[in-house]
Design goal:
single chain; about 210 residues; alpha+beta; Beta Polymerase, domain 2; five-stranded mixed beta sheet; two-stranded antiparallel ribbon
């Protein structure tokens, strides 16, 4: 899987896209591991032509399509669908016209940040949009993987990034959906989720608290 090359191909072809889901978390510093590249793409006519031309040399094909069935890869195919789960010579690439809890490309773009990665400048979802993709329980697990999160992946002109992360973290601590949620709030001395050393009768769950 050559995700670096995949992103470079899209950027160099002028494709309008925003990286979402797993790789978006990774670009924000998460230790999350993913086997595919998810991107939300613009459905403008010119962008569909650029996207089709960019991936064509890498033999894209629908993952669940039987090998004995034909598949035509071009901009007309892209116009007729909104989700394409592809296997390519570069690895697994999922193309999404819309992202749940975020919206279409315009919404993803409005809720994105510009980062320098893959030796290119690329757009990826900001943290607020990224956490909006997950249900509370999944969001807490995602947050736990942000142990190595860097202080600020936004440009210096947007200093609210760390503050937004802190607010998200506090909200997610309280998002535990365990029936025995004890309601404890995070503080510098209290773990929001008690550990296995706590009394089982009052322990809401066995998740450990993320650290900063």
């Amino acid at each position: 899987m050559n995700f670096i090359r995949a992103v470079q191909v899209l950027v160099d072809a002028g494709v309008e896209f925003v990286i979402v889901r797993g790789w978006s978390a990774i670009l924000h510093g998460s230790s999350y591991v993913t086997r595919d590249l998810d991107v939300c793409f613009s459905r403008s006519r010119e962008n569909l032509k650029r996207l089709a031309a960019a991936l064509a040399p890498f033999h894209p094909r629908l993952r669940d399509l039987s090998a004995d069935l034909p598949f035509v890869w071009d901009d007309a195919t892209l116009r007729n669908g909104s989700v394409f789960t592809l296997v390519t010579d570069l690895g697994i690439i999922d193309l999404l016209a819309e992202v749940a809890a975020v919206g279409g490309y315009g919404d993803a773009l409005a809720n994105s940040v510009l980062v320098h990665s893959f030796e290119r400048d690329v757009r990826t979802l900001d943290l607020a949009a990224l956490f909006a993709l997950s249900a509370p329980r999944a969001a807490v697990r995602t947050l736990v993987s942000f142990r190595s999160w860097s202080p600020c992946s936004r440009p210096p002109s947007e200093p609210d990034h760390s503050l937004r992360y802190s607010a998200l973290k506090k909200n997610l601590y309280a998002a535990c959906d365990c029936p025995r949620h004890c309601g404890r709030k995070p503080s510098s001395t209290t773990r929001p989720f008690p550990t296995s050393a706590d009394n089982a009768a009052t322990r809401p769950c066995s998740r450990s608290a993320p650290t900063r």
